[in-house]
Amino acid sequence: MIDLHYWPTPNGKKVTILLEEADIPYRVVPCRIGQGDQFSAAFLSISPNNRMPAMVDTEPADGGASLTLFESGAIMLYLAEKAGRFYPQSLRARHEVNQWLIWQMANQGPKSGECGHFRRLGDAQGDQSYARRRFDDEVNRLYGVLNNRLYDRRYLAGDEYTIADMICYPWTVGWEAQGQDLSEFPYFRRWFDELGARPGVQRGMAVGADMSVDYSKLSDDEKTRLRKLLYNQRARPAPEGGLL
Ligand SMILES: N[C@@H](CCC(=O)N[C@@H](CS)C(=O)NCC(=O)O)C(=O)O
Q: How far, in Å, is the centroid of ligand 1 from the Cα of 49?
């Protein structure tokens, strides 16, 4: 069984889309990031970066002890390999998928995350207009990268729908809140509409809909509490007595 430590954010939904598409049985273990679950010792032993999603497979293919993973890209690769689906194995096709999956993890995810961060922050900590413009522009550039890629390909890695598509999709659903105009990106739009119509994608995107919190509806006190918990995180001290 797969235990998915999850909260309904784009990074979490990448994995639920794959689990639904590949019909892999799983249990959701809520990781309430607004309550600080990601800092508990039990969670950090699975995910030392104090971020969800994280995963425990209690029945790995080698028959050994439970296998744990953090980082959504690593989890997607593992689950696709386990299911034997959505991750073509020929040399060239596999590396097409790998490069777009890593593109997502290194570019689309982090830049879109910062775009959301500065848009939500407003000017509460002083003038943030440069930061907002910087990340709006970067996100716009990244939609352009997807649009150009999809100009002559049905999917990101070619003719086949793969985990490269699934990993990118959830970060694009909030295009409006990211300040983007999809009429600029017709080839991306074609792909976006096709993926959005897939029942597996719809089921994956809906996981935890009852848990999610609308940030814009929170009171000022609640926003202050969340900022204290989530913003300005610094290094956690290592325990005493390690290898020196
Ligand atoms: N690169 C990581 C990013 C994961 C990530 O940023 N998760 C956020 C929610 S979307 C989180 O757990 N935040 C908790 C925190 O900021 O303390 C991945 O793709 O798995």
A: 8
pLDDT one-digit tens code per residue, 41-68: 999 999 999 999 999 999 999 999 999 9
Instruction: Please name the residue that has the structure tokens 């990448």.
Output: 14
- Does 129 lie in the same domain as 30? no
Which pLDDT tens digit goes with each residue over 165-184?
999 999 999 999 999 999 99
The answer to whether 31 and 52 are in contact (CB under 8 A) is: yes
Residue of 9, 11, 49 to mutate, ligand 1, most atoms within 8 A of C-beta: 11
Across 165-224, the runs of DSSP E, i.e. the strands, are none
Q: pLDDT of 3-13, one tens digit each?
A: 999 999 999 99
Count structural domains, the chain.
Answer: 2
What's the 52 CA to ligand 1 centre distance in angstroms? 5
Beta carbons within 8 Å of 4's beta carbon, 6+ residues apart:
12, 15, 16, 19, 26, 27, 28, 29, 53, 54, 55
48 plus 109 within the same structural domain: no
Q: Does ligand 1 lie within 6 Å of residue 163's CB atom?
A: no
- Residue 125: pLDDT band by 50, 70, 90 thresholds? confident
Q: Whose CA is nearest to atom 1 of ligand 1?
A: 71
Tell me, yes or no, whether 97 and 162 share the same domain.
Answer: yes
